[in-house]
Design brief:
Length: about 550
């Protein structure tokens, strides 16, 4: 009997080791980081990930004119290709189907956006070709060159040794330093420069308060220590170590990339390394869906990738994929005001669009529907309205809840009245600093206000005066459990990649924040476009309620 595939530790993420219990003689998976980590998985409770079952790729597909042009270029051209694919245009299918036009003697890899998509692609690609996420691809290069173990908490463990536990703001210092270290790595920046860190704090709304120098020193020491500990990797170091230690990278004749509008400079570097000996790159993305600048993505990724590819020995051609297979004609008409090139299919349904008041929307929305909003605070108010009506609700964004609880812990309130008072004082203090920064601080100011307003929504809907009950309410609301049987509420950011028959856009009259920074303005337009292209049938534009002002 063969040994089952080892799972990852449920506590720290490290690949586990098969062990035998001394008292019972039963086999179990134990964490190799023991005694530091005591993660355990008993064999009879462990269900390994099912093997990927190969599926037949449909043959003789008659593609659109645009798809046919892409497939022809993949088969016959020698240049790099950037496919400008708009929302719902079938981009993943288009590139997977393109693989059958490539000679089987070519070495081909496809980088997918997430694990689920990578597994789906693996089930359909021809034998001899490979697919993975960017993290998985880069980590394979690291493991080929170095002996490492995976620990998803590596950076947190390092920060724990650098920040004295007696420090009153331990959680705040940890989170700020953690964000800075990872942003420096993903953007290939110089952490020794104060201006670099200042710019990151401004762009990504990292709160350092009056501890700027302390946070920066902790971040720099953690960065150095993370490189020193090269026998351990977390998710970031799975990719970063390829760059940091200039590790050799497997070369490919053709390297595909999906969702390239969200690639950061580190991911761009990995791709270029994989084709540096003359390979081709074929990338697919929608520059109008570049919205993750706040989390480290390069907002101009497609343009920057194109410039980088032009410096190789091959030319670069851009090919369009502008016909959406998801959106009805009436929805496309709205999206055209933002992205004029998007087109509906000739046989697309007309669809339905209705503007309505909040009360009507709350009475209409049902399980299986999706509600989205630019801000988080209104979603919480709406969620409580729906819960009081007996409807099951899930709010996407577990990290939002973690951020709110972190803020509560930082404020150290005695009860909910004290929590509100301290939250408002915190808002006033931080707002003054951000307003002084002008355009550079306006996005962070919007984020700050939304965060405080979201917290206050939880307090206002709390049945007692206990801070712990607010914490529990936050954890429950953002648990993301039982999504299939619930109304799913989401910020527009988290709705990217999702779709539903019926979509309600709450506070549609405020869908774009009124910002003056050109980069932030572009992202607001992109968010508006994403919101309008989530529905497959009915789209409801819900006006702002006066009591949400």
């Amino acid at each position: 009997m063969s040994t089952p595939i080892a799972p990852n530790c449920p506590k720290c993420g490290t690949i586990m080791t098969l062990r035998t219990a001394k008292k019972t003689g039963k086999n179990f998976w134990g964490c190799p980081m023991f005694p530091k980590c005591n993660g355990t998985v008993w064999i009879n409770t462990y269900t390994p990930k099912p093997e990927i079952v190969k599926k037949d790729m449909p043959k003789n597909i008659v593609g659109s004119t645009q798809q046919t042009a892409i497939w022809h270029a993949v088969e016959n051209a020698a240049y790099h290709i950037i496919v400008d694919a708009l929302a719902g245009s079938g981009k993943t299918f288009t590139i997977v189907y393109a693989l059958q036009f490539i000679s089987s003697d070519k070495k081909v890899h496809l980088c997918a956006f997430n694990t689920d998509i990578a597994d789906e692609i693996k089930s359909r690609i021809p034998d001899g070709f490979s697919a993975s996420t960017m993290n998985s691809f880069a980590f394979s290069q690291v493991k080929n060159a170095m002996r490492v173990v995976f620990n998803k908490n590596k950076l947190y463990d390092i920060l724990e040794t650098l920040i004295p536990q007696k420090e009153k703001d331990t959680q705040f210092l940890t989170q700020a330093a953690y964000q800075l270290v990872n942003l420096v790595k993903s953007n290939l920046l110089d952490i020794t420069q104060d201006k670099v860190l200042d710019d990151l704090c401004e762009k990504h709304s990292i709160e350092v308060n009056d501890s700027r120098n302390q946070v920066y020193n902790i971040a720099r020491n953690a960065y150095k220590e993370s490189i020193k500990q090269k026998g351990i990797v977390d998710y970031m170091d799975q990719v970063f170590f390829v760059y940091c230690f200039n590790l050799p990278v497997t070369q490919y004749d053709i390297f595909f990339g999906d969702e390239i509008q969200d690639w950061n400079p580190l991911q761009q570097h990995i791709m270029l390394r994989a084709i540096e000996h003359g390979g081709r790159f074929i990338g697919v993305g929608d520059r109008n869906q570049a919205i993750y600048g706040f989390s480290g993505a390069d907002c101009n990724s497609i343009a920057n990738l194109t410039d980088m590819l032009k410096k190789t020995k091959k030319t670069v051609e851009s090919l369009p994929l502008t016909v959406t297979r998801r959106c009805p004609k009436s929805h496309v008409a709205l999206a055209k005001a933002i992205v004029p090139s998007i087109e509906a299919m000739d046989n697309a349904i007309e669809g339905y669009v209705e503007s309505m008041a909040l009360d009507k929307a709350v009475s209409m929305i049902m399980p299986g529907n999706m509600g989205i909003c630019r801000r988080n605070a209104p979603l919480i108010s709406i969620a409580y309205k729906l819960i009081r009506d007996g409807k099951t609700v899930v709010v996407k964004g577990r990290n939002i809840g973690e951020g709110l609880i972190s803020l509560i812990n930082k404020l150290k309130p005695t009860d909910t009245s004290d929590l509100v008072a301290k939250a408002e004082a915190y808002r006033a203090k931080e707002s003054e600093k951000l307003i002084a920064k002008g355009k550079k601080g306006e996005n962070a100011l919007e984020s700050l206000n939304d965060k405080i307003n979201t917290l206050i929504q939880f307090v206002d809907n709390n049945d007692d005066n206990s801070v712990n009950s607010v914490r529990r309410a936050i954890e429950t609301m953002f648990s993301e459990q039982n999504v299939a049987n619930a109304i799913v509420l989401s910020s527009v950011h988290r709705a990217k990649g999702l779709e539903s028959e019926d979509v309600f856009i709450f506070e549609y009259d405020r869908i774009e924040l009124k910002l003056t920074n050109p980069e932030f303005q572009a992202q607001e337009r992109n968010l508006h476009y994403i919101a309008l292209t989530r529905s497959k049938k009915n789209l409801y534009l819900v006006a702002t309620s006066k009591n949400m002002d």
